[in-house]
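Holo prediction — manganese (II) ion.
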Amino acid sequence: MTAPTDNLRINGERLWDSLMEMAKIGPGIAGGNNRQTLTDSDAEGRSLFQTWCEAAGMTLGVDKMGTMFATRPGTDPNALPVYVGSHLDTQPTGGKYDGVLGVLSALEVVRSMNDLGIRTKHPIVVTNWTNEEGARFAPAMLASGVFAGALTLDYAYERRDPEGKTFGDELKRIGWVGDEEVGARKMHAYFEYHIEQGPILEAEAKQIGVVTHCQGLWWLEVTLTGREAHTGSTPMNLRVNAGLAMARILEMVQTVAMESQPGAVGGVGQMFFTPNSRNVLPGKVVFSIDIRSPDQAKLDGMRARIETEAAEIAATLGVGCSIEAVGHFDPVTFDPVLVSRVRDAAERLGYSHMNIISGAGHDACWAAKVAPATMIMCPCVGGLSHNEAEEISPEWAAAGADVLFHAVLETAEIAG
Ligand code: HGY
Ligand code: MN
Ligand code: MN
């Protein structure tokens, strides 16, 4: 493959303008975004993205999970496309860049190819995966998981949000059920550009993260069954206290993660009390444990220990306990050839870089199951993400998009 020359750069100003334009859709309350999957604001963001893709001369395909594939033709119609993408859906208190940077940088790559009159042998497909976040419908990376064959379409369609609405009904409601079979598309390669969502690149003063791996994940949904009772008149020794069991299990998850260092994290982000009344001991507590590690044995060992000790904690309090795995993927090793191409591009473009393991999960983790895949990262301020204060600089954004541009062009093979 011939490498692009170092003068080929994307239009950083246009990329930043597009990011700020998309950020107006589904605004948060503190400067970030609340554009959760399959909401009206997600639909609005999808329409804007479709308009931009069509204005860039691409044709749009949509699969039965609502994932959007915008194609720029190559010179060889038989050559498998190079896919470049991420996600436009956000957390409820999300930032403006998580996922969005990758989708709009992929669009910027095509816009720059158009400006420069560059043709490639392989088509380019800019991709917006449905429901990467898993905030409204667990698990995360739902559409890419179905695409990779790890999850079924029926399973995905039946996933329910906290209000009991199903994924399938909501996808239909916003009018984004496509006609393509999920996973029918074959990829020559997949690239995803993403903010780091952690503190390493900024602390090391590196502009580019060359992502070699991604840590694996388990999401364990715990249901504790206590007995609803008056918080005032029920003696302490007569309580079947699901709330107390939950507190002790949370403390145990923290202990397991700390005792599994280095390279392990564990915590809880979502919890529901029923009836959730100030003066009623909860009859039911449902919460989601998120554990991750780049080491397969450590990840599975943490899961086994947490499940055993959670059952013991609940039993000592007479509380019922059931645990269901509602999200999982093994640690991922990205494609060494593509990883080297990213590193060489950063070097050629004069950007500081370092190898990094992704702490967050991404659609690239499932794409890597069905095609050579890799990721590029840029720093984010204070390593903060999944927070409306998430921030990057236009310079960081553009540097990573330049590297994406070069790695994609080299892989898609410039045809003049
Ligand atoms: O959970 C994750 O790692 C991703 O942000 N969905
Ligand atoms: Mn993301
Ligand atoms: Mn995210």
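READOUT: Residues 296-316 form the longest helix (21 residues).
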